[in-house]
Amino acid sequence: MGKHIFALMLLLTAGVTGADETNDSDLSPWAIDTITPIHDSVTRWVDNTARNIDGFFGTIDSDSVDNESYLRLSTDFDWAESEEFDIDPGIRFKLDVPTTEERLRLIIESDPEESRGTLEEQGAERLRNDTDGLGDTVAGLSRLGSRDKREGWHTRVGAGVKLHWPVNPYLRYSAERLWQLGDSPWQLSSYNRASWFEHDGYSARSRWDVGRPLDSTRHLRFVSQLQWQEDYDQLEFSQSTQLNIVLGKRSAIRYSAVIVGGSSSNPRVNDYYLQTDYRRDIHRQYLYWDIVPALHFPREADFKPRWAISLRLEMLFRAQLTRE
Fold first, then answer.
1. Which of 97, 108, 207, 307 makes a 20 to 30 Å CA pair with 67?
2. At what angle do helices 2-14 and 29-57 cross, to 10 degrees?
3. Residue 277 clears pLDDT 90, i.e. is over it
4. 3-state class of 40 per DSSP?
């Protein structure tokens, strides 16, 4: 699988002709002719599979409502100073069953957030945060709360299993809230989750994000995160300041300054870093290219500067419109 994805990514990279905001693609005609039939075929399979399962568990409306199921393939090219160059192909998918009665949904997804490691291992969030692979895939039922998160806490309770042997049952509870801070343009959002996996133990995470638009193309954010995992047994924290800028209809960039640390009894910073994340829609909202240079000051290197860069090519398979 990894070799095939890597070969496809090289083929697509070779077909990029350059940045042009006047159309919906940067690919050359031969690359478009090569990937379009493959993408359309896989997208139909993903959409039909999701709707057939939805129709079995849900209602007859499954063929006409929006379905958020998707499949995403990616390849990361990572380099960090004093470390080896790494190529990491990944798959992420989500199966959504939106018409199940009484707000009960069947969810199958890869790369659950409980499997992404410590905050220091995760690094900064990309403009689109993915992916690891099929080794951490969960399947379960999730009951959604009925409240809009702008009016009250929107909650979700779920249970299921992680799909590998031995079977690893889990329970989850999450709550989200969004506040408009008075008459100002500032908004505050909160996301919180508590989880239990039989083989991994308990974990809890909280994210608080306050931000405001500066103008039509720039958005300022301050993001605070807390995380605790039983197997790591240390409270972690991170604080970031982000400036997001829309460069055009198909590209955006994020500038970030981040602090990552841990321990509740004796807090200490483990890494400072500056990061730029440039994201480009290179073909019709399903093929994307990320370039992410960063300058780290890690404790393990006595806070001496260490350069790193990540390149990612990503292809999304998802039906864009509701069926008629």
1. 207
2. 140
3. yes
4. helix
- Cα distances (Å, whole numbers) of residue 142 to 131, 203, 213: 21, 18, 33
89 has pLDDT over 70 = yes
**Contact between residue 142 and residue 148 where contact means Cβ atoms under 8 Å apart:** no
213 three-state secondary structure:
strand
Given a contact cutoff of 8 angstroms between Cβ atoms, the answer to whether 223 and 245 are in contact is no
For the chain, percent helix, then strand, then coil, each to nearest 5? 20, 50, 30
Cα torsion 289, 189, 141, 198: sign: positive
Q: What is the C-alpha R_g of the chain?
A: 21
Cβ neighbour number for residue 246 with a 10 Å cutoff: 13
Residue type, 136: D
Tell me whether residue 303 is exposed, middle or buried, using C-beta atoms within 10 angstroms of its C-beta: 0 to 12, 13 to 18, 19 or more.
Answer: middle
Q: Residue 23: which residues within 8 A CB-CB, separation 6 or more?
A: none
CA angle 170, 119, 74 (to 5 degrees): 80
Taking only the tens place, the pLDDT of each residue in 10-39 is 555 555 555 556 678 889 889 899 999 999
Distance (Å, whole) CA 4 – CA 36: 17
CA neighbours closer than 13 Å in the CB half-sphere of residue 10: 7
Query: Is pLDDT larger for residue 216 or for residue 99?
Result: 216
Name residue 294's beta-bridge partners: 275, 308
For the chain, list the domains and their CATH numbers.
Answer: 2-317 (2.40.160.40)
Half-sphere exposure of 195 (CA within 13 A, CB side): 29
Taken in order 48, 51, 57, 62, is the CA torsion positive or negative? negative
Handedness of CA 41, 43, 46, 49 (dihedral sign): negative
For the question of whether the overall pTM of this predicted structure is more than 0.70, the answer is: yes
> What's the pLDDT score for residue 57?
67
